[in-house]
Amino acid sequence: MRLLQSIDSRLATLLLAAILIAGALGIARPDTFLSPTNINSMLLQSSVIGLLSLAVAITMLTGGIDLSINATANLTSITVAILLSKMLPPTGGNVTLATTAFALVVGLLVGFSCGLFNGFLIAILGYSPILATLGTMTLFSGVGTVLTGGDTLFGISAFASIGRGSVLGIPLPAIVFLLAALVLSLLLEARRFGFYVYLYGANETAARFSGINECRLLLSVYAVSGTLSAVAGLINLGVTNSANVDFGSSYVLLAVLIPVLGGISASGGAGRIIGVVLAVLILQFLSTGLNLVFQSSGSNFLKEFAWGATLLVVLAIGDRRYSKLGRGSRSRGRTPTVKADNVIEP
Amino acid sequence: MTLPRNFPRHEGIVLVTVILLAIAVGSINPGFFSFYNIFSLLKNSTVIGLFAIGFFLVLVVGGLDVSFTSIGVASMYGTVKLALAFYPDAPVIILFIVTALIGAALGLINGLLVTRLRAPSLIVTLGTMSLYRGFLLYFIGTAWIRQVPSAMIEFNQFNVLVMTAQNGGQVGLHISVVIFLAVVAIVFLLLRYTTLGRSLYAVGGNPVAARRMGINVEGVQMLAYCLAGTLAGIAGFLSAVKLRLANPQTLTGSELDVIAAAVLGGAAITGGKGSVIGVFLGVLLIVITNNSLIVLGIPATWQKVAIGLLILVAIGMPLLWRGGFIASRLRTGGRLLKAGGASR
């Protein structure tokens, strides 16, 4: 019960922080911050990074991590861009709906297979998630380099119109992000799969002894992560209408930061998807705010500094409750690397 | 197995791989074995090598420090800025001390945060990585400094061992190679023959047992991060010396090479394993591979794929010896309830 209460207070804090930051910016720059153009562009920007954060969040819940998200997203958008440009009718004109749908499915399959490959390395060969996904990060972006020859590919207009479309005034990418968050949330909180994910993240050994098929679980988790990255890549292709290997290399840090900020325990087993969604909003407000207030050329570097500081502050104030060791006794002398199941009280 | 029992299996395999690769490259391009090429390979491995040894020290205590390039660049750029502002004629030894101290301070911050926050070290150092880099680039500066202190330029031209090459030109062994080899030797002796060095392995191998033995676990961990920061500071400074240019945006992106070198050398990400000799060989393997992919006929666009595969295979090598493990994973899916699987 205490855990439940603490999660809710965490969510309340996040919600309050989001409202306060938005309110402060709204008062400071009422004409620019609250303008429909700005709100639209914030929603557009946050949906790609939001999807990547969801992809990291689910692997973090199992106590792992996926650093290849960005490379997977870029590989997906590159594949789809190539596919679409190859399928353009030679007579000119645009691709049909069926070919677009086909390209979308192929893109999702690319992300799914990338994720499955990560899962294979981690679950069956026993690689550590960090090293496996660091390696596949290079591998996937290497494959992307081979496909593009290092150039930037440009998408095609039919696809871009989808990326820039909107329903009831809400940009389509934002809707996709919220839907993905909703589906993932339901999957984690109302299905057996989610129960296994939390159990495995909280205590691997207990999960193994309770008869969970560890390989299947990890394979599915990393496949889901790869598929979410692929969705991010498709949206990115739609919005920017271009694809290259180096796109968004700073997103990896952000996509790790956001779940931690949103209350996903970095050692696994605790945290909720709704927290991740709130954290995405907070970071987007902060980043837009910094851009509006410091309109100098270096504000990107200030942002990098601010993100690093935010991550450390959040780790410092927020995570005691979630860390497996902080939960019980508060003795100072324990190391973070000790797994809960190894600790024997003297 | 015909190998003697105590043969360092992993190091041995890496050594054989390095030799085979060298023979392969040398047979395609005989210039590979020239003094000029060997000296320049060694010179190219010093920066990666120093980073890798620092990274390895943190791995040994069971941590993961990915902020080393940020520390290296921040120390280097800070040192050059300080020197130009206060003491442009500073002898090179002072510059080395300053960069090492800045690196040590940043490493100590890492160590304090990792031991106090009790969060995974990867996440903490990802945070400090962007913290240091953002601080450097926003508050200190983004400009390239071409007018570096004169001591750095002199040091750049300082060779210890000058030979005459086949074509009559002079080739020299750069002083940075000597520094690198000295660091390898010192860390080797430290890890192998001192109580402190053994306690690094003890903390990484089993922190609970190490604490019961009376080792100050937090202290040892902080020391490892601090040493890693120091070595990163020196490595960053050497990279600027080689280019005679202080560029605050350099080095990012070389993290993976360093991590690969340490892991190739047999260091385990779970801590408590590996040796400096292994890391040294891992560095050689990475540098030779990076420099020889073209000679081996791998087109430029395929290089990243080749390096990614090399890294994955390198990480996988120690795992593949546990063939039984993989077979049992495939059979039981990792469950422990089935008969025969519950051997843990």
Q: What percent strand of chain B?
A: under 5%
CATH topology group of chain B: ABC transporter involved in vitamin B12 uptake, BtuC
Into which percent range does the helicity of residues of chain A fall? over 70%
Q: Give the assembly state of these chains.
A: heterodimer
Mean pLDDT of chain B: 83
**N- and C-termini, Cα separation of chain A:** 27 Å
How are helices and strands ordered from N to C of chain A? Answer: HHHHHHEHEEHHHHEHHHH
In short:
The complex is a heterodimer of chains A (346) and B (344). Chain A is mainly α and 346 residues long.
Task: Show the helix and strand layout.
The complex is a heterodimer of chains A (about 350) and B (about 350).
Chain A (H helix, E strand, L loop, with lengths): L1 H27 L1 H4 L2 H26 L7 H19 L9 H28 L4 H20 L4 E2 L2 H7 L2 E2 L2 E2 H19 L1 H11 L1 H6 L4 H27 L1 E2 L7 H11 L11 H21 L5 H20 L5 H4 L19
Helix pairs in contact in A: 1-13, 3-8, 3-11, 3-12, 3-13, 4-5, 4-6, 4-11, 5-6, 5-11, 7-11, 8-9, 12-13, 12-14, 13-14
Chain B lengths: L8 H20 L6 H26 L7 H19 L5 H26 L3 H20 L9 H7 L2 E6 L5 E5 H19 L1 H11 L1 H6 L4 H27 L11 H10 L11 H17 L10 H18 L2 H10 L12
Antiparallel strand pairs in B: 1-2
Could you characterize what this model shows?
The complex is a heterodimer of chains A (346) and B (344). Chain A has 346 residues and is mainly alpha-helical. Chain A has a domain at 45-258. Chain A has helices spanning 2-28, 30-33, 36-61, 69-87, 97-124, 129-148, 157-163, 172-190, 192-202, 204-209, 214-240, 251-261, 273-293, 299-318, 324-327; strands at 153-154, 166-167, 170-171, 242-243. In chain A, a hairpin with a 2-residue loop joins strand 2 (166-167) and strand 3 (170-171). The relative contact order of chain A is 0.18. Residues 321-346 of chain A have low confidence and may be disordered. By secondary structure, chain B is mainly α. Chain B has one domain (9-332): ABC transporter involved in vitamin B12 uptake, BtuC, CATH 1.10.3470. Chain B contains 14 helices and two strands. Chain B has helices at residues 9-28, 35-60, 68-86, 92-117, 121-140, 150-156, 175-193, 195-205, 207-212, 217-243, 255-264, 276-292, 303-320, 323-332; strands at 159-164, 170-174. Chain B has a two-stranded antiparallel ribbon. In chain B, a hairpin with a 5-residue loop joins strand 1 (159-164) and strand 2 (170-174). Classes of the chains: A mainly alpha (346), B mainly alpha (344). Chains A and B meet through helix 5, helix 6, helix 11, helix 12 and helix 14 of A and helix 4, helix 5, helix 9, helix 10 and helix 11 of B.
